[in-house]
Amino acid sequence: MPYQRIHDESISEHALQKSLLEMAVRGRWLVHHETDSRKSNAGFPDLVCVHPDHGLVVIELKSERGYLAPDQYDWRDYLVAAGVRYYVFRPRDRFVADELFINGVFPEMEGYLT
């Protein structure tokens, strides 16, 4: 069954991040988030998540209208080429993220790469 994506401009990227971090904790994922991105490599994704049963997932968070910068495309392309599950999640994807973190249900990456 396809996931429902609800467009919601009222949720900020920060609020989305907080929501996803809470979901990850409930689903028993370990998550790394660099609190000061100035100290990490340009374009490095927002969340690196690992679960003993579900593996590694890397997530870039964007607002509804946000877009990937060139350095973020590079990270995405290299990670995907290396076999890493990589997603760009927006506020409309929070229910998809809930399925991923709580139930271990992974959406097809193709719909979540930009």
Secondary-structure blueprint:
Elements lengths: L12 H14 L3 E3 L14 E5 L3 E7 L8 H12 L3 E5 L4 H10 L11
Parallel strand pairs: 3-4
Antiparallel strand pairs: 1-2, 2-3
Notes on the structure:
By secondary structure, the chain is of the alpha+beta class. The protein has one domain (13-106): Trna Endonuclease, Chain: A, domain 1, CATH 3.40.1350. Helices cover 32% and strands 18% of the residues. The chain contains 3 helices and 4 strands; from the N terminus they run αβββαβα. It has helices at 13-26, 70-81, 94-103; strands at 30-32, 47-51, 55-61, 85-89. The chain has a 4-stranded mixed beta sheet with strand order 1-2-3-4, sandwiched between helices. Helix 1 (13-26) runs parallel beside helix 3. The protein is globular. Residues 1-7 have low confidence and may be disordered.
List keywords for this structure.
single chain, 114 residues, alpha+beta, Trna Endonuclease, Chain: A, domain 1, 3 helices, globular
Average pLDDT confidence is 86
Globular, elongated, flat, extended or rod-shaped: what is the shape?
globular
Residue fraction in strands: 15-25%
Helix-strand sequence: HEEEHEH
CATH class descriptor: Alpha Beta
**CATH architecture name:** 3-Layer(aba) Sandwich
Largest sheet: 4 strands, mixed
Number of domains: 1
Low-confidence stretches: 1-7
Name the structural class: alpha+beta
**Helix coverage percent of residues?**
25-40%
* Ends apart, CA distance between termini: 22 Å
Any idea what the radius of gyration is? 13 Å
User: What is the name of the CATH topology?
Assistant: Trna Endonuclease, Chain: A, domain 1
Reading side by side through the largest sheet, how are the strands ordered?
A: 1-2-3-4
Please count the helical segments: 3
Count the strands? 4
